[in-house]
Design a protein that fits this description.
Blueprint lengths: L2 E7 L4 H16 L1 E7 L2 H9 L6 E5 L3 H6 L9 E12 L11 H10 L3 E4 L3 H13 L2 H5 L3 E3 L6 H4 L5 E5 H4 L6 E5 L7 E8 L5 H9 L3 H9 L6
Parallel strand pairs: 1-2, 1-3, 5-6, 5-7
Antiparallel strand pairs: 3-9, 4-7, 4-8, 4-9
Length: about 230
């Protein structure tokens, strides 16, 4: 008999889950996993509206609130990986210099349009970074701000010259060329954790364990994440 499980997951691990891990888990455990991929802020909102996933992968900062609301079992939480923010461009465009904070400032203000996400952890941080760099008005006047999803799609369809997002999310769009990570002084890392829902079935524990194995960590690294 096939087990059916529900997983809420941040976008940062979508490539690793889609390319490798969910297929391998389903084959090994005779299980189907129904996945909802969204930024952590949107996942938390859905849980607040009554959704009850069996397993949650999200930015670690969100778990205290989820635990307080009784939406996850805090004792089950395991850190998976962390992700840094990078910049991508279209293959036909020259890669800008982003090796220093000053070079990054020049690259962002010189771009025709910069794409970033309104609701994703990287986009929320990037909006603050623009303020800190003193270029928010200049960049936002012609930015391509997406509600959610993969910002690199905005460079493949011509809406923007540069896309800013977690490196693992940029890698999900193979047509985009990753310029590199943000430089020291501008970089920000988001830690990702996994936890069980309070009424999760036994199969959910198998999924959590599978997604924390050395094999899973290798898939995260291949997708651009950083693991311990």
């Amino acid at each position: 008999m096939t087990t059916r499980l529900s997983l809420f997951s941040a976008l940062s691990v979508k490539k690793a889950l889609d390319d490798v891990l969910l297929h391998a888990f389903g084959k090994a455990h005779q299980a189907d996993v129904d996945v909802t991929f969204d930024p952590t802020t949107i996942l938390v909102g859905k849980i607040g509206e009554g959704a009850k996933p069996d397993v949650v992968i999200a930015v670690s900062d969100a778990f205290a609130g989820l635990a307080a609301a009784g939406a996850i079992d805090p004792d089950s939480r395991v850190v998976l990986a962390k992700s840094g923010i990078g910049i991508a461009t279209a293959p036909e465009l020259d890669s800008p210099d982003i090796s220093t904070v000053d070079a990054l400032r020049t690259a962002l203000t010189s771009a025709r349009s910069v794409a970033y996400s309104r609701s994703g952890a990287s986009g929320i941080y990037f909006a603050r970074l623009l303020q800190d760099l003193g270029i928010a008005d200049q960049v936002n006047a012609r930015a391509t701000v997406v509600e959610k999803g993969f910002t690199a799609l905005a460079i493949t369809d011509g809406r923007a010259d540069l896309a800013v997002q977690q490196v693992s999310e940029l890698k999900f769009v193979p047509q985009a060329r990753i310029v590199g990570p943000l430089p020291d002084g501008a970089q920000h890392y988001s830690e990702l954790s996994i936890a069980l829902g309070p009424t999760a079935p036994p199969g959910a524990t198998d999924l959590l364990r599978f997604l924390t194995t050395p094999e899973a960590k290798a898939a995260y690294r291949d997708a651009g994440l950083i693991t311990a």
